Amino acid sequence: MKYIFISGGVLSGLGKGITASSIGLLLKESGLKVTAIKVDPYLNCDAGTMNPYEHGEVFVLHDGGEVDLDLGNYERFLDTYLSSDHNITTGKIYRSVIEKERRGDYLGKTVQIIPHVVNEIKETIKRVSAGSGAQVCMVELGGTVGDIESMPFLEAARQLQMDEGMENVMFVHTTLVPIMGVVGEQKTKPTQHSVKELRSIGIQPDLIVGRCEEPLDVSTKSKISLFCNVPVTGVFSAHDVGTVYSVPKLLHNQGITDRVRERLGIRKGPTRMKNWDDFVERLGSCRETVRIALVGKYTGLKDSYISHYKAFEHSSAELGASIDVVWIDAPEEGKEWSSDLDGMKDQLSSCDGVLVPGGFGARGTEGKIEAIRFARESDIPFLGICLGFQLAVVEFARNVMGLKGANSTEFDPDTGYPVVDILPEQLRVTQKGATMRLGAQKALVSEGTLAFDLYGKTEISERHRHRYEINPAWIERIREKGWVFSAVSEDGIKMEVGELPRNRFHIGCQFHPEFLSHPRRPAPLFYGLVQAALEHRRNGG
Ligand code: GLN
């Protein structure tokens, strides 16, 4: 097993994840089996209990792991499925150490950060990477070098190089190269400082990737090389490019693939990027544009809906149309309600499609319901995901079936018309962490439906994350009035996809199709929405 650790210096948000995914992709396309681990130094056991508005989207894996959104990047770049073990957090490590202590595994020893916590980290990294059957494991160290909470992980990485041998463990450090002053000088001091910090804990980076607005000058590269003790061929420029999908090529053209292979003693060979290049090429050569509204609650932080955005890009490349996502913060009931609603409707009428994504909590739900109503009544293509699906049924119950006050019991436990209700198995759940209906679940699709047209098969598997469902007691009545439940769980009880055939494209799903969308393999429901939106636009709305 070869390990490539990716650390970050100066500040967060430098695209460590993209650097790691890009190197991983380049190695994969040169014939190696690659996996990835993301280390998050926070004390939460997983990302499931974290607010997307602070931390970005909670990504969901096949096994139900609720993880950092970087795992989504790895799955999409490496075209693989990871398990929740691939997201290591301080919380998970401490939990395991404390469990061992309670069991008496440490045989009377004083349990300490070094060696016990650090050993636990090393063992976890080794176990997870070995379990994946890969030859190379990318390990992205979250946070910034110098953070107190990252220390045990950096120490574990340093020790792992000693344990496994120099030729099996390498370090890639990503830093910021700011441009200052009127002459636009590229400054290397922040890089020098962060590398100094890294070296002070015994880690010498093998490669440095400098994030900069412009390509790094030759003189900048030489300076970084000199002060950071890295050959100039080991300094790479990660300057601004149109899309993150161009980063692998950007680094490859500077020779990163060969450098990594040399350093790890892996034989050289061709890197076959055709599939990826095709995707980037298609994405960049769209001839049409279509506007799709995303009506959500955390639209101020685009990372909250990152996988939706990616799923749009995947569909965009296949359909040759770029997507202008119109981010709409769902209006709140209150003083400005009616003018906010008018504002939202104005925005929606300039769009050719509407997406209402998943969510939790009452805030914004009435606004989302109004957005769905507008889409349904104006026959604008609509896709509702999880909460968006549940609210589409609530909207229908209220405005078509005439059930005033119909709601989900999540928002109104006393509603007379609980068309969405808690899953029976959730009634006994008291803990919040990792207790929803999570992960990949099979669903059976009925032929002759829109869902079947999109998926092209009768059995699908998609990832879930919810506690509520369309209330089984109401399904017959909703059906009678026009909804078709076109996919159901294997036991036939849970409604997985519902559609309204009287509209051109009005569909919702209980699962999250965005988590399984990949370049060259867009999620069928997103593809369908974009395709319908394109037709809507071509027909003049
Ligand atoms: N809050 C809803 C539920 O728990 C929807 C969840 C979601 O959209 N992910 O069922």
CATH topology of the largest domain, by name, is Rossmann fold
Number of strand elements: 23
How would you describe the shape? globular
Q: Give the tally of structural domains.
A: 2
Using the coordinates above, name the CATH class of the largest domain: Alpha Beta
Q: What is the CA–CA distance across the termini? A: 55 Å
Largest beta sheet, briefly? 9 strands, mixed
Radius of gyration: 25 Å
Question: What would you note in describing this structure?
Answer:
This protein has 541 residues and is α/β, with parallel strands linked by helices. The chain folds into two domains: 2-278, Rossmann fold, CATH 3.40.50.300; 287-422 and 439-538, Rossmann fold (3-Layer(aba) Sandwich), CATH 3.40.50. Helix content is 38%, strand content 22%. The protein contains 18 helices and 23 strands. The strands form five sheets. It has a nine-stranded mixed sheet, with helices on both faces. Strands 5-2-6-1-7-10-11 form a seven-stranded parallel sheet, with helices on both faces. It is globular and about 75 Å long. The N and C termini lie far apart (55 Å). The model has no long low-confidence stretch (mean pLDDT 95). The structure holds glutamine.
In short:
The chain has 541 residues and is of the alpha/beta class. It has 18 helices and 23 strands. The chain folds into two domains: 2-278, P-loop containing nucleotide triphosphate hydrolases (Rossmann fold, 3-Layer(aba) Sandwich); 287-422 and 439-538, 3-Layer(aba) Sandwich (Rossmann fold), CATH 3.40.50.880.
